[in-house]
Amino acid sequence: MQALMETEFEYFSGLVSRYSDAVLVPGYEYADARAANCHDNAEVFVKAHPDHSVVRGWLLAGIAFTSGMYRIVAHSVVRRPGALGLIDVTPLSASDRQCYRFLEHRGTEQEFLALKAKFPELYFPPPVLEEPFFMGEQTRT
């Protein structure tokens, strides 16, 4: 995992603090969609349905047996026209669809693309070891 710069740490802290606003996005069966290809899937869908728009953001899931750690994955979904809400045209397993929540990116497209390029997925906050551990090191007594 790449190290987080201060502004990136603040961004993902803000994202996690908005977790209560995250939504469960219903899946939408789309014949041309490919698994693990959400950004392209959303773009292709919107080209075929110009009254829809691509929404950039992040899938978040709390990690079991941790205190406030999340798995965060860059993700794109589709906004339907009017007040019809969001749909996810990318195939996901039923369990993934239930455990991940979507939060819309706050910022520009360029900012999202830069974050996605550096952190397509991450665990946040990063784990911190209280005492450095090195492989092969004897346990201290």
Architecture blueprint of SSEs:
Elements: H1 6-17, H2 38-48, E1 53-62, E2 70-79, E3 86-87, H3 94-99, E4 101-104, H4 109-118, E5 121-124
Antiparallel strand pairs: 1-2, 1-4, 2-3, 2-5
Q: What proportion of the residues form beta strands (DSSP E)? A: 15-25%
Uncertain runs: none
Number of helices: 4
Specify Rg, calculated over alpha carbons: 18 Å
Order of secondary-structure elements: HHEEEHEHE
> What's the total number of strands?
5
User: Quick one: overall form?
Assistant: globular
Helix content: 25-40%
Average residue pLDDT: 91
Terminal-residue CA separation: 31 Å
Q: Main sheet?
A: 5 strands, antiparallel
* Helix/sheet category: alpha+beta
For the record, the count of structural domains works out to 1
How would you describe what is shown here?
- It contains four helices and five strands; from the N terminus they run ααβββαβαβ.
- By secondary structure, it is an alpha+beta fold.
- The chain has one domain (6-124).
- Strands 1, 2, 3, 4 and 5 form a five-stranded antiparallel sheet that branches.
List keywords for this structure.
4 helices; 28% helix; alpha+beta; 141 residues
Write a brief caption for the model:
This protein has 141 residues and is an alpha+beta fold. It is built from four helices and five strands.
